[in-house]
Target: NADH-FMN oxidoreductase RutF, flavin reductase (DIM6/NTAB) family
Amino acid sequence: MFYRPEDGHGLPHNPFNAIVTPRPIGWIATRGKDGHDNLAPYSFFNAVAYVPPQVMFASTSTKPDRGDTKDSVAQIRETGVFAVNIVEYAMRDVMNQSSGAWDKDVDEFELAGIEKAECETIDCPRVAKAPATLECKLTQILQLEGASNFAVFGEVTGVHMRDDCLKDGMFDVLSFNPLTRMGYRDYSVIREKFSLKRPGEE
Model:
């Protein structure tokens, strides 16, 4: 099968995000200038650079109470900071609860019963028991082609790692099993790993 996105795919559901899979989930925490906290998951998320460490996530829809975007991007525009929390399999249900199109004044930490902690380098909440959290300072917001598509880039200014996830000096993803996003309503979980050496490496 071949299709041009501009012509449509002719399938019952859009296959695009099932093709680009699995995707890590950035559980983005923000605080508005009015002090309201927000927490929402984004699967258009990844690390993009080592030095300095940088990450990005993309928001692709709107809410009636946020104009051209959603709560996360709106609050980052106001404050210039955000925190990326890594989602473990054990947190799948509360993560999903935080994904609803709740009113902008709703605190998803409270809504889903998620313990909150303060960041160290930025004025922002974080998921207290997340396997890891990246504290980020906004570097740029790019408006992408299409309505309401925004890519948010941030420089990592602080890194939290849960102590039980450190094994022999390494961050061990199998100690918490990261949740990943697939297509449609499907998710997966990382339960095994293997290593490959690059050509020429000893």
About this structure: Helices lie at 16-19, 71-79, 92-97, 108-112. The chain has a mean pLDDT of 96.
